[in-house]
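Hey,
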Amino acid sequence: MTNAKAKPYRLPQVWVSCDRWPDPGRLKTFVRDIFRIERPRTDEQRALAVYRWITRTFMWGGQTVEGPPNMWAVEPDLIKTLNVHGYGYCDGWGRLFSALWQAAGREAYKIVIYNDTPVPAHTLSEIWYNDADVVYIDEQYRDVDGGFASGLVVHEFTHYLQDKSGDFESLSCDDSIAREREAYYVQNRYIIEALARIDTILPSHTTCNYANAGVDTQGD
């Protein structure tokens, strides 16, 4: 027999974990514990450690959404995506990886790929971990003739000089757009003036919704 006057009992907020599993209560504690457990020595090893733990705790599945029927939207809370849903398409994987790397104090972007349509075709994560002042160019352009390949090198070295200048905030959306505009401008000036060509490069779509990709969803 129940007592109608009895107050409802609230279960205490208890988090059960162990020292061999990252604390997923916050993005920063999750990535902090990954590094504590894995003990990586370089940023490349740290990036691989984050990737391994995402594959252990996150599954490939459908899109995680919130809201009533016909009014749903993609789940914005990455902590909830990680702990409650536990799965996602490329968008969820890209956002989670980028946000965890940002939570570790590194530079990362969620990249959206479009195939000549306004509808996104794929999402991936672009992370940076090289501290040796190396500019990477895809080897497919090694033997490419014309202005594109050498112009691409100029484009990427422009970004290198931007980073050295200290004039741009890496995770700022506005600064990211400004960086790309300047790099395309320098690249096209090089193609026109140094190579005497007119096949200039049109700027591609710049996605900058990564600016705060879940890093502060649960505070510091």
